[in-house]
Design a protein that fits this description.
mainly alpha
Length: about 550
Amino acid sequence: MTKSDTGPRTNWLPLVALAIAQFVMVLDQSAMNVSISALVADFDTTVTTIQAVITLYCLVMAMFMLSGGKIGDIIGRRRTFVVGLVIYACGSALTAVAPSVAVLTLGWSVLEGLGAALVLPAMVALIAGNFEGASRKVAYAVIGGVAGAGIAVGPILGGWATTEYSWRIIFAGEVLLVALILVMTPKVADAARTGPAPKLDIVGTVLSAAGLGLVVLGVLQSSTWGWVAPTDESPVTPFGFSLTLFVIGFGVVLLWCFTAWQGRRERGGRDPLVHLALLKVAALRSGLIGLFSQNLILMGVFFTIPLYLQLVIGLDALETGLRMLPVSITMFLASAAGSRLSGRYPVRSIVRAGLATAMVAAVLLLATIDPELDNSSFAWSMAVLGVGMGLIASQLGNVVQSSVDASGRGEAGGLQFTGQQLGSSLGVALLGAIVLSGLTSAFVSNVSSDERISNAVSEQVGVAVGSGIDFVSADQVGAAAQEAGLDDPTSEALVDDYEAAQLQALKAGLLAAAGLAMLSLAFTKDLPHEAPKKGRRADDADAQMPA
């Protein structure tokens, strides 16, 4: 057979570079959740502070993802990809040597978040620009598989590095991987742009970023400031209420101003940050809500479960990663199986089955929260959660992309990543706030009803934890009681009450996750609900977007 008979061969080297970039982008979120205790110890800080750092990392991506996609349209997707990688590598290097929480936040949350906001939208466009037809479908499938692999190996890799060496190795390794990608990037062709370069909407960028930031900040601080009734930690108490409601409310007002501004720019013939008409497409809107819900539940659980395994059970980071492995494996397998199921069953049915499975899994996990870990029950519960998340992830990226034509896929991709990262940031903030506020109220209630503790000590505890307490090990509570001069029986009683409060708070967080999964079912009605016709040809829109 001659060369002309075989046709042009596809160069897969660009896909290797883009796949490594996808792996790096998902590694942080999955690897560092098992290192919360190590971060707390290394920086002599609190779980609440690390919760804020993790939340901010996801939030920065959500705040600037739309702008990152637009910058790719302006200066070119490959150049944006390179710039984003350089910023990301600088953030990783700074994080690897961070001497304080402030530097950690700058490197991990801010610089890496900004870099990812440039890389991810550009990566999706570069796949479309480097591959066509069946090759493009393969490329999207590989990217989706690599994202799943990153989620699967992240907890194990993070746990191993943290236990055997240091969590800093993860970030140092990311610098080396980015260097490898940059060496390979000249082989990646730029994605062609149709029409003139758009203008960046600076006002829209500020309004959207500030609005999203304030909403998440309010949720994050709710455990410290209080939701409605203010605590002693609330900086101000407008009209006698907690600052939380006003911060969230102001964020919502800014987001309303953002939508009004986008409409004004469109009517004036100027480029908006995002064409809001896309959100009128029912299937796309439902797909975005589904992606938001999936990441909210998954990342919320991924923040909650390590608290149980490390601070209640006493496992190290590697042991925690091993216990969380079932959810990663079954999520990867269910995602692959879900792609095949979509050829036989309606998308809506598959997504609803995934949400129902996730809800059942959260209830099963809730039942395993005991002073002693039941390894078998816990593993099966985590595996069931992975099945539910995988079924959802297998469908919604394609729903978003196939809901618009080729001209709208860039903005649809930006909305998709924004929804995912907003869900991740709110998941950590919301479920974390529920766990921490539940810990405070349960501990105070347990102490006040404990006959072994005098009224004087009970009142002192109520005053001491009135503004909220941090999630620490029971040993630390016992040590604090001894330092306060309490006798042994009282100290033991306080430890018992705190251990019971820990379990109750963790169960409240998982119950909230189950409730969120059930609530999300109400927003699936606009997903495609017709069974695929037999023999229907799939086009490029059927390619899976990375989850």
